[in-house]
Amino acid sequence: MKPRFAHTAAVTALLVFGGAQPAMAAPTVNTYAGTTAVSLSSALLDALSSLNVSVSRQFPADLNGGTARFPIPTGQIDLGSAHGEIVHAGGLNLKAGATTVTLSDFVIDTTGPTPVLTGLVAANGDVVGRLPLFAITLTRNPVIRNFGVAGQVSISGASLALTDAAAQALNGAFGVTAFAQGIPVGTASVNAFTLNPAYIH
Fold first, then answer.
1. What pTM value is reported for the model?
2. Using CA atoms, how far apart are residues 147 and 52, in angstroms rounded to an integer?
3. Is the distance from CB of 36 to CB of 188 less than 8 angstroms?
4. 171-178 contacts: CB < 8 A, separation 24 or more?
5. DSSP for residue 197
6. How far is CA 149 from the centre of its chain?
7. Which helix (H) or strand (E) segment is 13 a member of?
8. Residue 71, preceding peptide bond in cis (omega within 30° of 0)
9. SS3 16
10. Could you report the per-residue pLDDT of 91-115, keeping only the tens digit for each?
11. Residue 62 and residue 74: Cα distance in Å, rounded?
């Protein structure tokens, strides 16, 4: 089943998920594996370099050649309404001098009135809180494949930009004013594998 989506100039991936209009009844499935890959933008990397901020991975994420990959260990999606969560493991460490800010445990959440993409923010090991981190603009509709017991949810070519909440958190942690809402973060692709719990005993 492939849902229809509303198109706007700037729309988050989760808003598109939440706006899906089911054509027929569909099951709620569990995500159990997969990866979200983010190709970090040169604008972001140049901005970090100018501030002497280095980027490293937080296990089990992977960072190689400017592309970060985050495993998808769990989650749940209603294929009819597209309500649910896609949970990610690992994150990114941003370090300048004695300050390290970690953005991790990203969650795609479509259960509320406004879908959000959040991450856990920590400064020097102390948790600041869970914040909306990235606005996401889709270039293609998400693709949902359902084969009964198993399936797949895919998003490709999604553009990520820094939110105001994330910019304020980074500016506060590093004592700068360089981070601003709308800075391009990169391009993301999500590939989540699903299982229908009704078939598992």
1. 0.83
2. 48
3. yes
4. 173/99, 173/101, 173/123, 173/128, 174/51, 174/53, 174/96, 174/99, 174/101, 176/51, 178/47, 178/50, 178/51
5. G
6. 25
7. helix 13-18
8. no
9. helix
10. 999 999 999 999 999 987 777 765 5
11. 18
